[in-house]
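Checklist before submission:
- one chain only
- standard amino acids only
- sequence pasted in full

Submission:
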Amino acid sequence: MVGFDAKNKNTLDKKFICPTCSMILRDPIQLTNCGHRTCQSCLPENILTVQCSQCQIETSPNNIKIDRAFLNGMQSIPIDCCYCEWNNIFGNYQVHIDQYHSNTLQHVSYDGTYVWKITNVQEKISQFVFVFHVYMSLYLYLGDAQSERQISIYSPPFYSSPTGYKMCMRLYLNGNGNARRTHMSLFFVLMRGSYDAILKFPFNYKVTFCLYDQTPHQRHIIDSFRPDTKSNSFQRPRSEMNIASGIPEFVPLAMIQQEGNPYVRDDTMFIRAMVDFNNMENALLRYALNLDPGLPNHVKQVPIQRELERRV
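Returned file contents:
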């Protein structure tokens, strides 16, 4: 878990900002050899020395502990909630978040990847089929092309970094356009974010989707696409979200509707989106997606780097 976000974090004294995650310090740790602080959760685990991300000076883990005096001094700093209009002091911020925004926080990801848990899959498919037939009836009765609509669901938003792109997924369980009733369609949506003014546009990073095989066989369905930088979908968002773009024929419907299939278990499926900022080759990308999703990203980077060196 990274530090705390807030609307006014950029106006606070920099000593309250973690140099690793660029958020307000959570459980601040002081590195005794240099005096700088970082979030306790931003420290890598199981290493011999901790290198400060601000000055690169190393400190032994044995000489690190939560700086409670500094934490006490943080309690009175002013905070503007990043999720609503609440403003108060830092000492009351965690209580406010727990009471009003804990459902929001469980969906936040700041590393350009997101695993979307979709429950009640068959019920959602049935609902979409019912709505589709209603609209088709209106279309045939009224001759109104606008009555033929495809129904979709959106994932919670996720981010490329604490100050990065804001994104989400859009899923048509019964397909969209020419893929309707034959495939599940999955799209990427670029959303308007707080830091768009300083980000690079058009967005031109490869996006990969993965439907997880929930058995030990790990025969995940993986597909990628590269943004069309001329498309409005990948320009700086001027409204809440851009037009979705992605893979209309992501998975055949027959595959996920087959009894005993490995992709829908207990009426639940898991879809992962991954923005590839390192321009991985497809084989290495597949290797990365097969790593345990439960591992922290800094842990997964070690075997990925070893695999890259082996391939080279």
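Reviewer check: The CA atoms of residues 61 and 234 lie 43 Å apart.
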